[in-house]
Specification:
With 79 residues, the protein is an alpha+beta fold. It has one domain. Helix content is 42%, strand content 20%. The chain is built from three helices and four strands; from the N terminus they run ββαααββ. A two-stranded antiparallel sheet has the order 1-4. α1 packs antiparallel against α3. The longest helix has 19 residues. The protein starts with 7 loop residues before the first strand and ends with a strand.
């Protein structure tokens, strides 16, 4: 952005919002929806990646009660 604007600032909250997931299919469905962007970056079938995510998230839910996702958000102010 600095090539197009003289002044670029990034404003971030002190802490990102968190979401607690208690259903592994939510995370797996999200990963499945990103196949058209990321699937060509692995030699594995994308369905295997989705299954691995589902399994790992389910393990975390079984171990700690939920899978917590923290967002990395911010806003750019360009002048």
């Amino acid at each position: 952005m600095s090539t197009a604007f003289d002044d670029v600032q990034v404003i971030r909250p002190q802490s990102g919002p968190t979401v607690s997931i208690t259903d592994a299919s939510i995370a797996a469905d999200y990963v499945a929806s990103t196949a058209d962007h990321y699937a060509d970056q692995t030699s594995r079938p994308w369905s295997d990646v989705v299954d691995e995510v589902r399994s790992a998230v389910q393990h975390e839910i079984d171990t700690t009660g939920s899978f917590t996702v923290t967002a990395d958000t911010g806003a750019f102010i360009c002048r």
